[in-house]
Design goal:
Rossmann fold, five-stranded parallel sheet
Length: 404
């Protein structure tokens, strides 16, 4: 699902703005994605943290944040070698911007923080995807595990996941339990105010599967003379839909193509009633249609290894990267946050979806909206509390590092 709900009019301080108010901390972000960096930047700037983006995203020209870095680029960032690490440190150890920075932020992939270890500065690692992205081969993954644990154990570092799924995934392969700190997404200012009776089907990873869903839904509607209307968001608004398009509809039908994503969190912040497949149905669809292959470590590599991860995880549990065992898929899907969000309604078939949309009342939608609202208020408060404490700890580390 594309992460395109961010409001371009929501202000984030530019470097020029920071010249007017000295930040408490300055961190350099090196990342392949714009969205997660935008989200954490919006939160941390309110706590006095300036983030200098060195983006490796192919869309960095849109935000004028392209890195201009030597040694690593959009392609090589996913296959950084030890030789690259040494070359990068030699190139930037005397760079004024790197010297003046109080630390670094790594999100996608977090393994880029391995590159930054020689600088001996605090790092913020936010696991918003599988933590081994960029280290998919057995030897590089095992070495990354060693370095990952070193980074976690360093008391000046802040290491979190943004979802319960990734918390359990990291624990499976490293035996370390990290805090779960979702993105606050406070830049999402639109709120649910329905004026249209139809429901929207959100983007689906496979066009052929989207056609199957809509065809089955229409057959059900016509057969039983139901009143529910379901429209595909791209058909109605194109690929550039905005949050104010979504909040006008009665609700959203979401078939996730990821076990966690910033886009799903943004949808939750809109407080729109959501309809999702049950764990069992999503697991079956994954086996039959491979909707969530981007969630997995590497499906093709898994096929060559008997559909297993190249390294061992916790004993007694199914492999999270097994993309053909329906029971294993279902086991891991239960950790997805969207299966514990209050107010969400779940359907066990397309026929059940048609029935639920047809029978859902205005009171039902109001109840779901209020549940989402209360959930957001509490979760965002918890997120801010965590980051306030984390920033205070990073400030203390900065003071400690200053020579007496």
């Amino acid at each position: 699902m594309p992460t395109i709900l961010r409001d371009p009019d929501v202000l984030i301080r530019s470097d020029a703005d920071w010249s007017l108010a000295k930040p408490d901390l300055t961190f350099i972000s090196i990342d392949l994605k714009l969205g997660p960096t935008y989200a954490i930047k919006h939160t941390l700037q309110e706590l006095g943290v300036r983030i200098i983006e060195k983006s490796l995203s192919p869309y960095c020209h849109i935000t004028d944040t392209c890195s201009g870095l030597a040694i690593i680029n959009q392609t090589s960032a996913l296959r950084v070698t030890q030789t690259d690490g040494v070359a990068f440190w030699k190139r930037y150890r005397d760079d004024a911007e790197f010297q003046d920075a109080d630390g670094f932020i790594c999100i996608h992939p977090v393994s880029l923080c391995e590159l930054l270890m020689p600088f001996r500065k605090p790092v913020i690692m936010i696991v918003d995807d599988r933590y081994e992205v960029g280290r998919k081969q057995r030897d590089s993954w095992m070495l990354w595990n060693e370095h990952f644990l070193e980074l976690v154990e360093e008391t000046d570092n802040v290491v979190v996941t943004t979802s319960a799924y990734d918390m359990e995934y990291v624990k499976y392969f490293t035996h370390v339990s990290l805090p779960v700190v979702p993105f606050a997404c406070e830049y999402i200012t639109e709120r649910y105010h329905p004026s249209l009776p139809s429901y929207l089907l959100m983007p689906i990873n496979e066009d052929g599967f989207k056609d199957i869903i809509l065809k089955r839904f229409r057959v059900e509607i016509e057969t039983y003379d139901l009143n529910a209307r379901l429209e595909y968001v791209f058909d109605l608004y194109g690929h550039s839909f905005k949050s104010n398009d979504l909040v006008k509809h009665a609700g959203l039908v979401v078939i996730p193509h990821q076990v966690s994503s910033l886009a799903l969190t943004e949808l939750r912040r809109l407080e729109i009633p959501l309809f999702l497949p049950t764990v069992e149905l999503l697991a079956r669809w994954q086996v039959d249609f491979h909707l969530m292959n981007r969630s997995l470590h590497d499906s093709r590599q898994a096929t060559n290894h008997g559909r297993q991860s190249p390294i061992l995880g916790a004993g007694g549990l199914p492999d999270p990267n097994d993309d053909v065992n329906q029971w294993a898929i279902g086991f891991w899907l239960t950790y997805c946050d969207y299966f514990s969000w209050p107010g969400v309604r779940y359907f066990n078939s397309v026929e059940d979806l048609a029935s639920k949309l047809n029978s859902t009342t205005g009171d039902d939608l109001y109840y779901a909206n209020q549940k989402a609202r209360m959930f957001n208020v509490e979760e965002q408060a918890n997120v801010y509390h965590f980051w306030r404490l984390a920033v205070d700890r990073l400030k203390a580390a900065k003071v400690k590092s200053v020579p007496a």
